[in-house]
Structures are given as C-alpha cells and as structure tokens.
Design goal:
113 residues; 4 helices; alpha/beta
Length: 113
C-alpha cells in the first residue's frame, strides 16, 4: 500500500507494488547500493547509481517517467530519492525493505557476469 508521508518528496511502496509497476513498464529502477552489491544481485534491468552519487549522476535519471529507488533495506534509496527530489524530479518511489524484501518475496534477481 503506497504511502506518501508529509515532508517526504517520494512515495513509499512495498516490493509487490514495485514489481507491479516494473511489470507494467515505463519506469526506471535505480539500485542505490554499492557497485559490488549490485554485481552480486539486483532487480533485473536496474541501473546502479550509488546513493551518494545521485547528484553527480543526475543526467542518468529519467525525468519522463516514474523512478523507483531500491537499496538493501530502503534507507540508502530514501536518501537517493531525496537527492532526486532536490534535482526537481517529482514522480519518485522508494521500495520499503529493498532487495532483502524483493528476494524474500521470490522475485527474480539478475547478476553481472
């Protein structure tokens, strides 16, 4: 159940809502974890932008569709979502529980070769 909290520029979603949005298409998924974490397993098709690199890699973030941020548990991705909002991006989602919850739900993970 999506939740928009006062003072937060993003909407909190669970992994099931994230999966539905991804399956429906036309969203960008950003993995806010470290490169080695992304390498070991991530949401298929996600783009790795470390949370503290969000501002310097702003040119890689979509502005024409919803952007879903995900990390290990939801903390770093929330920071990244805040940074994206500071850039003027408005259609932002943070996955509560992150990759831990994604994997626990049995959803597919992709690894780098």
């Amino acid at each position: 159940m999506a939740e928009k909290r006062e003072g937060e520029p993003f909407t909190r979603i669970d992994v099931h809502e994230a999966k539905e949005m991804i399956d429906a298409g036309d969203v960008q998924v950003i993995d806010s974890r470290e490169p080695h974490e992304h390498h070991d397993g991530h949401v298929p098709g996600s783009l790795q932008i470390q949370h503290m690199a969000t501002l310097v890699q702003a040119d890689k973030i979509a502005r024409d569709r919803p952007v879903i941020f995900i990390c290990k548990s939801g903390q770093r991705s929330a920071v990244a979502a805040e940074f994206a909002a500071a850039l003027g991006i408005e259609d932002i989602y943070n996955v509560e529980g992150g990759h831990d919850a994604w994997q626990a739900a049995g959803y597919p993970m992709e690894t780098e070769d």
